[in-house]
Automatic annotation (TrEMBL):
PANTHER family tied to this protein: GALACTOFURANOSYLTRANSFERASE GLFT2 (PTHR43179:SF12), RHAMNOSYLTRANSFERASE WBBL (PTHR43179)
Similarity comment: Belongs to the glycosyltransferase 2 family.
Pathways per UniProt: Cell wall biogenesis; cell wall polysaccharide biosynthesis
Name of the protein in its database record: Galactofuranosylgalactofuranosylrhamnosyl-N-acetylglucosaminyl-diphospho-decaprenol beta-1,5/1,6-galactofuranosyltransferase
Organism field: Nocardia alba
Leader peptide range in chain numbering: none
InterPro entries hit by this protein: GlfT2_C (IPR045699), GlfT2_N (IPR040492), Nucleotide-diphossugar_trans (IPR029044)
Domain Galactofuranosyltransferase GlfT2 N-terminal: 59-172
Polar residues composition-biased segments: 1-11
Length: 632
């Protein structure tokens, strides 16, 4: 079966189609470029309309691009998708003045106000008008008072009659040429999700006309092309859609394929990388593209992430990486995190260190200057590319009011095979872009490992050590793009029973024996507590019985008190059973000591080795080899 699948993928690569004609061409610009449109309802019923516009005083009739207000009602777009991020446009683009226009059908009289905020959220009116007849209206605002923060929005009053608002658009003077843009979607066995993402792009005629190509890179066995929805919308793209099958090389391999193909077709085309399992807001594509066309210098432009299960919540306003601590996904100071965008707006401009690739635009100049991503399968690939781009003078902007919905991270359990790639790749990226302190890094790893041993997460410790050990192999560990590493990371965890998730109703223990114990507050002297818990686990002076622990209480300092625990999985879809195993803990502790000693000793040489390998690893020739295609 595997040979047949590989053969099919190889044949698919051999039959590579020519790039879409639209991608190979150039674009003349209109007189004014649309920066954002007025959207009044979301792409799904799960999304609150108040993320787009808020109406008071009567029931409004909403369509995607129109809003009908009854007599006496008011509406405003001081909302997540309704605001115009003036601060970001003033700081990063050539735009010095923005206009907002709309088509009004006025039943009596309508008041229209163009309103601004500052870094503290204080409201001020920039311009206003009174409309007594139907037609186009337009208001203009200079972008000259928003460097540190602030946004623009519209307010409407339906006075004396009904009011309909359509064709709302924020515009600015267009550049001489509009850059071609393609979308690259990477997918692995999320065929239905991916089909819906593609369909979302096809649902908006303006967005569909603005993009020059869509590359769907399918690395799975449950194929997107077999989904009826994909086949249904495929003709709407005409020549623009390209479907590629290839071996599973992770997100790095899938997204890089899009960069590889687009840059070969048109060295001046930007690429928007987009996850397969998002809820796509098509308007975001238009906003990223417009911003990228008007930045002073080529800029990576990222969309923000809203939570899929909690759709009004923002993941984070902007992220950065702390390389010396091997930590990514760190909130930029003053950025919002895990915040309802129905209750609060992002007034302050916060500057990102990088943007994750749930949706992110990569300018053509970046690919031309720094090459392709490093083949590290997944996790940290987007971080590394953003850091490398910045080192070559290309900043990243995470643009507010441009977002997609992505699966909530806190529903994923930390004890997972993905921890292998997170560990290994954090070391690789740290080695490439900073001078790691071997003493500090190994001390931190030892603390981390000790906590998980105390928490009886032996498989997680194994997976972490596996990542460190493969980092110690040097760049040759990346030779196959991660295929063997993925198989090893998954299969070897089967030796650790606590990594297996069981149905909560039928755990592999007697439910009647489970006694739930809640945790107290976090201890203040954690190092001392860690030593105490380690002694407790080592000597077997743990509390007897079978203990049930909820996810929120699953801290090492609580679980370390017990011999045998049933812990709720972060996904809330089952439980895991942990049991003290002194022999296994001892073996892992010895292995950790030897591995970390070797890491501390060899880190300087490994840093130099990885840095020397970057040009070859990121070359088109290396990626062509991994894809099994002829680069000529």
């Amino acid at each position: 079966m595997e040979q047949s699948a590989t053969k099919a993928v190889t044949e698919s690569n051999d039959r590579r189609e020519a790039a879409p004609a639209s991608l190979r061409g150039e674009h003349s610009a209109p007189e004014r470029l649309v920066l954002a449109r007025g959207i009044f309802t979301g792409p799904s019923a799960r999304v609150s309309d108040d993320l787009y516009a808020v109406v008071k005083g009567g029931a409004a009739v909403r369509e995607r691009h129109s809003l009908h207000l009854p007599k006496g009602a008011t509406a405003h777009t001081n909302t997540y998708f309704g605001r115009f991020a003036a601060s970001y446009w003033q700081r990063w683009t050539t735009v010095t003045e923005v206009s907002v226009g709309a088509q009004l059908v006025v039943g009596g009289k309508a008041n229209v106000r163009l309103v601004a905020s500052d870094i503290a959220g204080h409201r001020r009116i920039i311009a206003s008008l009174v409309a007594t007849s139907s037609g186009n209206v337009s208001l203009t605002a200079p972008l000259d008072q928003y460097v540190d923060g602030g946004a623009l929005w519209l307010e409407f009053d339906a006075v004396g009659g009904e009011l309909e608002i359509t064709e709302l658009a924020w515009t600015a003077q267009a550049p001489e040429q509009v850059r071609p843009v393609a979308i690259a979607i990477c997918t692995f066995n999320r065929a239905e999700d991916c089909a819906h993402t593609v369909a979302a792009l096809a649902s908006d005629a303006v967005v569909l006309a603005a993009i020059d190509a869509v590359y769907v890179v399918d690395q799975g066995t449950d194929l997107v092309e077999d989904r009826p929805l994909f086949q249904q919308v495929r003709p709407e793209f005409g020549d623009k859609l390209r479907y590629i099958r290839q071996p599973n090389l992770g997100g790095a391999g899938g997204f890089t394929r899009g960069l590889y193909e687009v840059s070969a077709a048109n060295e001046h085309a930007d690429v928007i990388l987009m996850d397969d399992d998002i809820l796509c807001e098509p308007e975001t594509v238009l906003r990223l593209q417009a911003f990228a066309n008007l930045t002073v210098e080529p800029t990576l432009v990222g969309a923000q992430m809203l939570f899929l299960l909690n759709p009004d919540y923002l993941n984070v306003g902007a992220e950065e990486v702390h390389l010396h601590e091997l930590k990514h996904g760190q909130k930029v100071p003053k950025a919002l995190r895990n915040t309802s965008m129905l209750k609060k707006n992002q007034e302050r401009r916060v500057d990102a260190g990088y943007n994750a690739w749930w949706t992110c635009l990569i300018p053509a100049e970046v690919v031309a200057k720094i090459g392709l991503p490093v083949p590290i399968f997944f996790q940290w690939d987007d971080v590394e590319y953003g850091i490398r781009a910045r080192e070559h003078g290309f900043v990243t902007v995470t643009l507010p009011n441009a977002a997609v919905w992505h699966a909530d991270f806190y529903w994923k359990d930390y004890d997972d095979w993905a921890r292998y790639f997170s560990t290994r790749n954090s070391l690789i990226v740290g080695a490439l872009h900073t001078d790691l302190d071997g003493k500090a890094i190994t001390r931190e790893f030892f603390r981390y490992i000790a906590e998980h041993l105390v928490g009886m997460q032996y498989g997680l410790v194994h997976t972490t050590l596996q990542g460190i050990e493969d980092f110690l192999k040097g760049p040759k560990a990346l030779r196959d793009g991660g295929i063997d590493a993925l198989a090893a990371a998954r299969s070897t965890r089967n030796d650790y029973p606590e990594t297996i998730k069981h149905p909560a109703a039928t755990p592999p223990v007697n439910s009647a024996d489970i006694s739930v114990r809640r945790a107290g507050g976090e201890p203040s002297r954690t190092t001392l507590v860690l030593i105490k818990r380690a002694i407790t686990q080592w000597t077997g002076r743990t509390q007897p019985g079978l203990i049930g622990v909820t996810r929120e209480d699953a801290h090492w300092w609580h679980i370390g008190l017990f011999e045998h625990v049933v812990v709720t999985d972060a996904s809330q879809s089952g439980v895991r059973v942990r049991r003290r195993d002194k022999a296994r803990a001892r073996a892992l502790l010895i292995r950790a000591y030897r591995t970390l000693r070797k890491l501390r000793k060899e880190l300087p040489a490994l840093q130099a080795e990885y840095r020397r390998a970057v040009p070859e690893l990121t070359s088109r020739e290396n990626w062509a080899r991994l894809y099994g295609i002829d680069p000529s």
